[in-house]
Design a protein that fits this description.
Blueprint (H helix, E strand, L loop, with lengths): L1 H28 L12 H14 L5 H12 L10 E4 L6 E4 H13 L13 H13 L10 H9 L1
Antiparallel strand pairs: 1-2
């Protein structure tokens, strides 16, 4: 069992490194793109890809990655943007300020957040995220997890 866990850990490290290289290449060649994905945490991105692989077991991994990055390009970051840390401890996640602004604008469009999109994650944004999560039958945490982020920005 220890050997199996070690093999799994090594596979995760290899896929994580491969994915980072693949995304980095896309960032370099895609026009007007600083970061192709609003999901900054590599393990969140890897989990998203695993979910897609489970839904499409006959697909080649590269095809899944290409499709996911193409879908995420609608929420891409076009220029350098500072980082915002949301949460603490093991639940802390980093997001680009431009992503937080896009989230706030979308929440405002939906009539859930009343206020200016400023890129700061505070109590109003958290309460609005909880309301959005409830409307989409997502876990009501008020946190900007990858499922909430993708559901909000990509519909």
């Amino acid at each position: 069992k220890s050997s199996e866990a070690s093999t799994r850990r090594e596979a995760i490290i290899i896929y994580d490194a491969w994915l980072a290289g693949y995304a980095s290449h896309v960032n370099r060649v895609a026009e007007n793109t600083y970061d192709i994905s609003p999901v900054v945490n590599s393990l969140d991105m890897l989990n998203l890809l695993i979910q897609q692989c489970e839904r499409n077991p006959d697909a080649v991994v590269e095809t899944i990655v290409s499709g996911v990055l193409a879908a995420l390009s609608d929420a891409k970051i076009e220029s350098e943007s500072g980082m915002v840390t949301i949460g603490d401890g093991k639940d802390a996640r980093d997001y680009r300020r431009a992503t937080i602004i896009a989230v706030q604008r979308k929440l405002d469009e939906l009539g859930i957040l009343n206020g200016r999109a400023d890129g700061r994650y505070g109590p109003k944004t958290a309460a609005s995220l909880r309301a959005f999560q409830k409307s989409r039958s997502l876990p009501e945490t008020g946190h900007l997890d990858s499922r909430t982020l993708l559901s909000l920005l990509l519909g």
